[in-house]
């Protein structure tokens, strides 16, 4: 089960890369490594991360620099997949940014 990164999450990641690149390669590498670790973990154990208490349709993972990854687990036949909806900084007002 490979995670599917949806359009808004891809845009979030691009913005994060641009922002962190201003501080050099180390923060950018640390974020990428954290995101890669998340993808590995969620592929092997999709229920590893808790439900987001303010909107339980989503699971929430926290990675480097207080970035939050919001995802859903979708069953498809005998298999499932993980859809990554957003990657947002924890200090943002998140509720209006999550969608169905």
Blueprint (SSEs and pairs):
Elements: E1 4-5, H1 7-21, H2 25-44, E2 59-63, E3 67-76, E4 79-89
Parallel strand pairs: 1-4
Antiparallel strand pairs: 2-3, 3-4
Helix pairs in contact: 1-2
Low-confidence blocks of residues: none
* Count of DSSP strands: 4
CATH class: Alpha Beta
Cα radius of gyration in angstroms: 13 Å
Number of helices: 2
Main beta-sheet annotation: 4 strands, mixed
Shape: globular
CATH topology: YaeB-like fold
Distance between the termini: 21 Å
Q: How are strands sequenced across the largest beta sheet? A: 1-4-3-2
Which percent band covers the strand fraction? 25-35%
What does this protein look like?
- The chain is of the alpha+beta class and 100 residues long.
- It has a single domain (4-90), classed as YaeB-like fold (2-Layer Sandwich), CATH 3.30.2310.
- It has helices at residues 7-21, 25-44, and strands spanning 4-5, 59-63, 67-76, 79-89.
- Strands 1-4-3-2 form a 4-stranded mixed sheet.
- A hairpin with a 2-residue loop joins β3 (67-76) and β4.
- The longest helix has 20 residues, at 25-44.
Annotation keywords:
alpha+beta
Question: Gist?
Answer:
The protein has 100 residues and is an alpha+beta fold. The chain has helices spanning 7-21, 25-44, and strands spanning 4-5, 59-63, 67-76, 79-89.
């Amino acid at each position: 089960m490979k995670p599917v990164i949806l359009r808004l999450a891809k845009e979030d990641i691009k913005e994060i890369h641009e922002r962190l690149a201003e501080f050099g390669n180390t923060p950018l590498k640390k974020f990428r490594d954290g995101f890669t670790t998340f993808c590995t973990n969620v592929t092997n154990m999709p229920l590893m991360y808790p439900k987001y208490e303010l909107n339980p349709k989503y699971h929430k993972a926290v990675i480097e620099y207080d970035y939050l990854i919001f995802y859903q687990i979708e069953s498809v036949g005998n298999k499932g997949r993980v859809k990554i909806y957003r990657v947002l900084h924890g200090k943002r007002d998140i509720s209006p940014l999550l969608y169905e």
